[in-house]
Predict the structure of Carbohydrate ABC transporter ATP-binding protein, CUT1 family.
Amino acid sequence: MATIELKQVNKSYDNQVSAVEDFSLTIGEKEFLVLVGPSGCGKSTTLRMIAGLETITRGDLYIDGEAVTHRPAKERDIAMVFQNYALYPHMSAYENMVFGLKMKKVPREEIQRRVKEAAVILDLDDLLQRKPKELSGGQRQRVALGRAIVREPKAFLMDEPLSNLDAKLRVQMRTELSKLHQRLQTIFVYVTHDQVEAMTMADRIVIMKDGRIQQIGTPAEVYETPANVFVGGFIGSPPMNFMKGQVVREGDALQLICAGEKWQAAGSTATRLAESGLQQVMVGIRPENMQLAETAADNVTDSGHQRLPFQVEVVEYLGANMLVHGTVGDHRLVVSLNHRQGVKAGECRHLLVNMNQIHFFHPETELRL
Ligand code: ADP
């Protein structure tokens, strides 16, 4: 079983644009790894360096423990699936799938066995004789996947393979790719700018920004303990709310002044603030870690919740949940409610913030406390 290891990999284009810096990571056997981040953060460059489509400026790459840094793409035994499918328009789906194998002089019976297997996995049987223009976007994507599968590579590299599909098909193909991964039991390295794709499919996620890794972890790890403000804001939808807070010590007690209110910091919250020794912090609250107080009596300290006055501006009803946009003092917040509540734009209500689920970050380094 294959592993892929990147050691301090760097890429600068024309010795000017630094696209990837000090990228180190070992991708485990059978792992579904997703590289995610905003446009231009270096995801595709990283993937293309693994594929051998882009040279590595500095650092080392190992596949199965073997140094392949300077080896050409065709000797790396890796298959790449692109966003635009890159199918030959004049060839049928079948011909597209077998073209690479014929070039490699794979015996005919072996080619037929592999195509048959891939066609079953991807449900392509009836489409094999069609040309790309006679196929829908989703079908073309399946042919592109089929062409990768028949190569029986050590790893599949995918660059935004679902971006050209409509929203519904994307959701469907996400499930299909997860099933395909389980079935093939091979490394998948998948590039996307969409954090939902990353969260739903990945065993581990690598979050990148400006060519650098921000955090590596399972979907639960990066969601529950974001390493910095960027990750907190990037993972999760709608994004985490951020507010500046002031830490005030009164004797042994510790208070957080935030959005013009005094928050009671107790338990682990107080410990984290005390240990930081900071006077200013960045407070992160996920939209789903707040509720609307139902009655005036819904109280604060006994339930580990902080009560805040909330001016409701916009209510978005989404069926399964609702998003309430509004302000607490000068701060704009979004609250996600998972059940229907009578709330209207213009109302003045109270929020209950779950104090055990708030995040603290350093105000300058933006690192998690
Ligand atoms: P992403 O896939 O995250 O959108 P890329 O890896 O494509 O990002 O690009 C990372 C950075 O490298 C960007 O600043 C981009 O403009 C630059 N870049 C990408 N390809 C080239 C190239 N062939 N020549 C010069 N700069 C490039």
Notes: The CA atoms of residues 4 and 66 lie 9 Å apart. The first strand starts at residue 4 and ends at 13. The chain has two domains: 4-234, 241-361. The domain at 4-234 is CATH 3.40.50.300 (Rossmann fold).
